[in-house]
Amino acid sequence: MKWPRRRRNDDQDQQPGLPPPATPSAPPPVPPGPPRPPSGALEEVLRSRGRGSRPPAGSAPRDAEPRPRALGQRPAPEPDGRTASGPARRPAPVPKAAPARAALADVNSGAGDSGETAIAVRFATATSALVFTGRLAALGRPQAGDHRRSVDGSSWWVFTHVALDLGRQLATAADGTVFLVRSTQLVRDQGWGDPERVAGRRSAQRLPLASLRPATLFDLVRRAGLYSVPGRALDDAVVLLRAEFAGGVIRRALDLGLEVTYRPTRLTPLFDDEPSDPAQHGVVLELALRAPHGDLPAGFLDALHRDPFTLLCRRVGGEDTVLMQYRQGSALSDGPLLELAERGVWLLSGSEFGCARLERLGEPLDGGALVELAADYPLQDVGASPDWADDAPTAPEAPRLTVVPARTSGATVDATLLDGTQLDTVRMMLEGHPLADAVQVVTGRDQHLLLAAGGLLERLPLGEPLHCTGPGPLYIPLGFRTEPLLPPSALEALFEPDADRAVVLTAHAALVFDLTRRRPAWTLWVGPLPEPDLQLPDEAEAVLRVVDERLTPKPKPRPAEPPRLRQAQPPGSRPRHAGTGSSRRPRHWRDTALDAEFAGDLVRAAEIHEHNGDALRAANLYERAARQAAGRRW
User: Fold this and answer.
1) Peptide bond before 471: cis, by omega within 30 degrees of 0?
2) Packing angle of the helix pair 602-611, 615-629 (nearest 10 deg)
3) Host H or E run for residue 118
4) Rg over CA atoms, the chain
5) Residue 332: which of 458, 220, 464, 420 has the closest Cα?
6) Could you give the CA distance from residue 266 to residue 235 in angstroms, rounded to a whole number?
7) Do residues 227 and 130 touch, judged by C-beta distance below 8 A?
8) Could you say which DSSP state residue 41 is in?
9) How crowded is residue 604: how many other Cβ atoms within 10 Å of its Cβ?
10) Which helix (H) or strand (E) is 148 found in, with range?
11) Helix (H, G, I), strand (E, B) or coil at 452
């Protein structure tokens, strides 16, 4: 990016090393031999002789500062005076003389011998004015510069004394417009040139100084507000919250090894100048968190920041004077912000919480006392033979075997536990569902078990999902594990699951189901069948009777015996030949796979599913077999 170009005199457009054009008013070229006079005398000579023609309006004067070059461009080397045509050379740039700087100081009201200029910078927003003020404070300038505001409130002004070139850069970076302070007027700066010539331009915009009204830095901070910043590492922080939420935060902080103190704090409005009754303002608990080593955990800070009932704050500049909401920042830097706080402790936060002054009530106390409120631990006098002095201390009791919540990532739903009221809804859920062909039900007294060969592999909208932890048909609720942890051999020895006995471990009981009573789930909603009526022609029935008479041997005559009646078939049964035995549902391949699964042969069960085209359950069984071979449960 190039700086804006300006018009130059004819003699400035010549190439280095060439003599200037001959004009009536131009002096002859300066020979290189004689020594150069002092800069102040040379400048006076040039001013008195009027070197060169007068530049057009809007162009840079001959004795103005050098034209800025492109950002990052190296300065051009000075000509050495030797050219191809002869030894004549152009005079070197003349530095500004000390008398000119003194004259400049006289023009700028309030400027000193250090070359600083009194300027006023206009900003459209209070945020831009705060950024400019903070930058001046970082340079060591006095922050209590004069701040003003336009009558209509459309602009903010900052008055200061600074080197003009530095002030122009800082104002441009903060999206401001520079004005030169001249007595009772403000003259708009053109962005280049010395202030004496800028102030003398007739076309420059001029504003009366009386058109601005006073403003304070406090007003700027209030109007600008806060903006979002990335979270950063903190070794200490402050949390403001109501008392009912303090216990959980303190407990989690203690679990992370943090130091926690608390005390009540009263909040009063920060921007309300009128005194009010303190009893009308809220009281919250202030928790001070500190990490003994390193920084506070970033995840813990993010969780507190997302909690809508807690306000996480950082100490501005590490001081306990200004508290600012976490991941929020002010356009004013920390140093001036600390100096602005006059009394008490300031709280600066977003619109969802608001700003306040903190009135701390009492000294901070250890927060660990707030998490030990559920039980008493009475103190006792030491006896003649205290328990801790016995030679043979009693062994602690073994913990009761139960199931506790745990991560079971990768575990699938192998079965579902239902209670008595949920069994009636299975029809509405599974009727017409593809699972109805694979699900089997084992009914119990008040609990029922839904299972399938290879696993259900789908979380049903009712019941408790179970996963098979093994060995055999041993099930545990999904998201739980045994406590204490036991190896598979111990579980097999304690509960003895086998092909006819399934065990479901819950937090309160160990439920045992008889797997020999399992039946397809579709039998739950299938009622009695209509009585079969064989539609045979009359001729076929006559032929069958003749065949039956010829093949059936005639019984020997016996004593009087009542005629033998033909036993009626039960409703819904099909006619069968004599001697075939009782009716029995044909055995399905899923029954064979389920028996192999309950027997612990998961690979064979997977092969049966794979052979019959059920690749999903085959993959689940192969995965369970691989986990068991690796000693993992999920």
Assistant:
1) yes
2) 160
3) strand 116-123
4) 48
5) 220
6) 25
7) no
8) H
9) 16
10) strand 146-150
11) strand
Q: Write out the E strands in 406-563.
A: 415-419, 439-442, 447-452, 464-468, 474-477, 480-483, 501-505, 510-514, 519-520
More confident: 477 or 64: 477
Amino acid letter at 338? L
| 164-173 and 126-138 helices, crossing angle to 10° | 140
| SS3 state of residue 310 | strand
Token match 């929020």: residue? 328
AA letter at 295: D
Query: Would you say 256 and 304 are in contact if contact means Cβ atoms under 8 Å apart?
Result: no
Alpha helices in 30-156 (DSSP H): 39-49, 98-107, 126-138
- Across-strand partners of 207? 186
Record the tokens describing residue 503, joined without a space: 């065990």
Residues 25, 50 contacting (CB under 8 angstroms): yes
207 burial type by CB count under 10 A (0-12 exposed, 13-18 middle, 19+ buried): middle
How many other CB atoms are found less than 10 A from the CB of residue 469?
24
Q: What is the pLDDT of residues 94-151, one digit of tens each?
A: 443 333 333 333 333 444 446 788 899 999 999 999 889 888 888 876 544 688 999 8
* Residue 171 to residue 156: CA distance in whole angstroms: 13
Name the strand (E) or helix (H) holding 119: strand 116-123
Pairing of strands 501-505, 474-477: parallel
pLDDT score of 237 more than 90: yes
Residue found by looking up tokens 């704050």 in the block: 313
Structure tokens, 420? 């008595």
Are residues 135 and 158 in contact, defined by beta-carbon separation less than 8 angstroms? no
Backbone angles phi, psi at 131, to 5 degrees: -60, -45
Q: Centre a 10 Å sphere on the Cβ of residue 214 and count the other Cβ atoms it contains.
A: 9
Kindly list the distances between the CA atom of residue 28 and the CA atoms of 22, 51, 88, 89, 351, in Å, as whole numbers in the listed order. 8, 10, 11, 11, 72
**What is the number of alpha carbons within 13 Å of residue 237 lying toward its C-beta?**
27
| pLDDT tens digits along 75-90 | 444 444 444 444 444 4
Query: Model pTM?
Result: 0.46
Give the pLDDT of residue 297: 93
Exposure on the CB side of residue 49, measured as CA atoms within 13 A: 14
What DSSP designation does 129 have? H
Q: Would the pLDDT of 327 be above 80?
A: yes
> Can you say whether residue 150 is alpha, beta or left, with left for phi > 0 and alpha for psi between -120 and 50 degrees?
beta
Q: What angle do CA 15, 16, 18 make, to 5 degrees?
A: 75
The owner of tokens 């840079």 is: 60
CB count within 10 Å of CB 259 equals: 15
Task: Name 596's Cβ contacts closer than 8 Å, sequence gap at least 6.
Answer: 602, 604, 605, 608
